[in-house]
């Protein structure tokens, strides 16, 4: 029987299921029944397992695809994955994954040829990198609800986001080592400047070089455009961006992204 190679039909990638139609499907079924019948006749015990992926299998694949930037532009966590994401965020795996990223930051930072001229820089994002919005997103079904700009702004203006402990630790160690750490956030400077600064200070983010927020010139522009422009300006000022840490790919793509980028996991929302 001739089977078309997978992925060749009309240029569309075929899923891992044989694309047989009509009489071919019937023939397959007959062959399968014949094989089973002859197996029984020979006294063989035939068993097979239909491999039907569970929601959790599906959601693990979904989450990996999100973290690797293979799924983009998604607006909400798929309905069948709400419990999976909740379990991931609260059950310890998220904390362990952040810890693994931070371990890699330490490992890399130890090998950076530090010059000591005051131009060795790091970039760190704020939301869900330095400060956690997990408590807010608990009320939004861990990303099951679409982004609510008014609700999020009200939350951010309260200035009560806790630090991600592992990120706070590495932030302090980078500052102590002499790196200039720039905090770069898409939060609106005009309306969220004061509470963001206060929140960062209250949580122990002190002695950073500069907190750079979105000004009026970048209103409505994507994070990639805004953050790329800021990083270009820093490079033009002579800074060497050694590391760049963020929970969104839009923190880590574009221009002058740095010598190494580090992705903090975030399966709750996507920022373009
Ligand atoms: Mg962020």
UniProtKB/TrEMBL annotation:
GO molecular function: acid phosphatase activity
Protein keywords: Glycoprotein, Signal
UniProt entry tagged with the keyword Lipid biosynthesis: no
InterPro entries per record: Acid_phosphat_B-like, Acid_phosphatase_pln, APS1/VSP, HAD-like_sf, HAD_sf
UniProt similarity note: Belongs to the APS1/VSP family.
Protein name: Acid phosphatase 1
Gene source species: Colocasia esculenta
